Amino acid sequence: MPERPSPAPLVRRTSHALAADDRPIRLPHTEFDGGEVRFLGEPVDPELVPASAAALWHACDGTRPYRSWPPLERELIAGWHAAGLVVAAPPPRSSPSRALICLSPHPDDAQLALGGLLSRFGGRVVDVFSQETWTRRPYYRSRPALASRLLLEEERVACGVLGAELTVLGQVDAADRSAWREGYFLEPHDMDAARATEPELFERVTADLAVEVAGGPLVLVPLAVGGHVDHVLTRQAALELISRKVLEPERVAFYEDMPYSLFADAEAEAGRLAVGPGPTGLVPVLVPASEAAVRTKQEALWPYRLQVLEAVTRRIVRHGRQLGAPGWAERLWVLPESADAFGELASAAADEAAAAG
Fold first, then answer.
1. Over the range 21-37, which residues count as b (16 or more CB within 10 Å of their CB) and which as e?
2. Rounded mean pLDDT of the chain?
3. Cβ neighbours for 49, distance < 8 A, ≥ 6 positions apart
4. Can you tell me the distance from the alpha carbon of 223 to that of 218, in angstroms, rounded to the nearest whole number?
5. Can you name the residues that pair with 329 across neighbouring β-strands?
6. Each residue's pLDDT tens digit, 140-187
């Protein structure tokens, strides 16, 4: 019998070593199957993850600081972090989270667009179309139920890194809805087709979001750059709540969808957006982030192994440097009514970034 080839080494390109107060969180793609350990469906070198280490791996749940383990176990965990099997959550923030709600069309959208802001302020992510099966990995394409479970687990890990709460609404992703079998990206002139094609779904989403945005927090809404129908529906539902006077416009800002804003014109989309009967006049607000917050965003994006390419996350980070030069930033688009509230948010972020040096 021919000898099985050795597992390929796992290497993650990161300069971030685990700090004493970091809280390791395991990624959900690791499977312990008897004497074999697999990650993303592929065998893992037993020297990196011995089968006897299953209990230690499961203990990496984000509740314990790295320093709390004895030296030999810390050595194993450090190797897992370098290989990308665990990620590092910073210590819990000393000040309470801001009253922020980020409407995320899918798991990963809020983090891709606003991971720096969420790492600074926390808040709550509301995933709308959270029942997904699409993945670029063949191993999981042939296992859609497993892919669906892992996509949500990735989201929980990312929120754990960012210190954000998570609400899952459970609507089905456009890729799995018959109405969009031929494609689910809309041209700017055809955005109304999202609501008109699935009116019952639109009403369900609007009713769900009415409950989630109640109570007065600031609400971050996708700008729907790129025209993905689920992003458009989420934006349209928020606009409907504004028109019904359920959601006050002074609480709302629109964020630039990623990675679509790398390739499409977010400024043009902001110029086309109408909120209410009159001219909207959205203006940009840059929300800076410290290098520590950028690093935390990068950690939070690493768990998305089934859909997001590492090259995309690197481009998103570079884009933030271009926006915030000489620092780093994410961009919101705000109404005149909400300029003060989100300007205050940006000022607090700027103060922290300056203090961090």
1. ebbbbbbbbbebeeeeb
2. 93
3. 30, 37, 39, 57, 80, 85
4. 15
5. 288
6. 999 999 999 999 999 999 999 999 999 999 999 999 999 999 999 999
CA distance 199 to 99: 31
* 3 state SS of 128: coil
Asked whether the predicted pLDDT for residue 6 surpasses 60, the reply is: no
Measure the CA–CA gap between 63 and 77, rounded to whole angstroms.
Answer: 14
Check if the beta carbon of residue 235 is closer than 8 Å to that of residue 221.
yes
CA distance 270 to 332: 10
Task: Give me the pLDDT at residue 1, please.
Answer: 45
Cis peptide before 326 (omega within 30 of 0): yes
Instruction: Give the predicted TM-score (pTM) of the model.
Output: 0.95
The strand pair at 329-334 and 252-255 is best described as: antiparallel
Cα–Cα distance for residue pair 297/300, rounded to 1 Å: 5
Number of other residues whose CB lies within 10 A of the CB of residue 266: 21
pLDDT at 3 over 80: no
